[in-house]
Amino acid sequence: MKNDWEFDHVGLVVRDLDEVLQYYPSIGIGVDIGPLGNGSVWPVPSSPEEEPLPTTMTVYGKPHVYKPGPANSEKVNVNRIIENLQVGSLVIECILGRSEGNGMNDDFFRDNGEGISHVCYNVPNPEKETSELMDKGTANIMSLETEGKIAENYLGTDKYGKIWLSFRPPAGKWHKSWQSHNRAHPLVSDWKFQGMGVATRDLDKAVKYFKHLNIASIKPEVMLDSSTSPDFKVHGLTGSAVKARTRKAITGSVIYDFTQTLEKETTFGEFLNKRGEGACSFDFTVKNLEKEMSKLIYRGVRMVLSGKSGDGKAFAYFDTRKVGNMMVKLIQA
């Protein structure tokens, strides 16, 4: 387990930035926090919040050059490829997936549709961590470098779960101030990001792969079976049962909750049938589950599954797949 990896954000590829920036706030779970990110251009050029532009970029190992936009001294260009949402303690980097685009996230969008493409960590030595994973067979999907040092990269850890791993160097003071400012927003909830539910067709192979990468602490298997307890409720969908093998892989502070469904019920089976493997839920712990459930139901968000896990903690899944193709799972802290 990598104890010195500091989680930064997840990357969510979407078909329409305006749509996702409207949808999450409309159901009371997200706040638009702007386009800060590598390569972003702010309305106030050279403001201290602006991150430096990388000097070189490779995509799939080949040099990539940004095409400069037309010069216009009367207009400030603002990034419309990346926007960010703050959901509880989680930063979601929303990335525009373009059917005709030539970037790696465009490829992800064409292959998988909307969904999480990567999880990003700030690590003490991105070059060392990258080298170790490449020695284990992972591809260098993308690399941004400034003065020969990695500013951010994507590594091909998507064999099971279709999620790339991303590294950045330790966050600087401006980035940390930006994070603290966003978390203090009065409309940001106190939800604590725990990790993601990840649908997989073969739990054993997924676990074996993460053990091979040596980046995660693997927890014992837990069976999720709605027929064994009256606490489980499947709500309003075509399926009436849930039976699945689950196992957690903890990378840094983020839990990949791998799930292999054993029934063709819709909570997980429908996701696999429609999209295939990948992250299917954002998972948060909350102080008062009943209160948070009531808020979402009041706003018209459908609850699709609720119950108690093997450790006795109550949980509920909500169908927020309308934009981004991700459910929200709330867990009683």
In words, what does this structure look like?
With 333 residues, the protein is an alpha+beta fold. The protein folds into two domains: 6-183, 2,3-Dihydroxybiphenyl 1,2-Dioxygenase, domain 1; 192-332, 2,3-Dihydroxybiphenyl 1,2-Dioxygenase, domain 1 (Roll), CATH 3.10.180.10. Helix content is 21%, strand content 35%. The chain has helices at residues 17-26, 104-112, 126-135, 173-183, 203-213, 266-274, 289-298; strands at residues 6-14, 31-34, 56-59, 62-63, 82-87, 90-96, 115-122, 140-146, 149-155, 164-168, 192-199, 217-218, 222-225, 233-234, 243-251, 254-261, 278-286, 303-308, 314-318, 327-332. The chain has a ten-stranded mixed β-sheet with strand order 2-5-6-1-7-10-9-8-3-4, with helices on both faces. Strands 11, 12, 13, 14, 15, 16, 17, 18, 19 and 20 form a ten-stranded mixed β-sheet that branches. The longest helix is centred in the middle third of the chain and has 11 residues, at 173-183.
Number of domains: 2
| Secondary structure category | alpha+beta
How many alpha or pi helices? 7
Instruction: Give the helix proportion (percent range).
Output: 10-25%
Biggest sheet, open or closed, and with what strands and sense?
Answer: 10 strands, mixed
**What proportion of the residues form beta strands (DSSP E)?**
35-45%
Sequence stretches where pLDDT stays below 50 over 5 or more residues: 37-50
What is the averaged pLDDT score? Answer: 86
Q: What is the CATH topology descriptor of the largest domain?
A: 2,3-Dihydroxybiphenyl 1,2-Dioxygenase, domain 1
CA-based gyration radius? 20 Å
Text of the CATH class of the largest domain? Alpha Beta
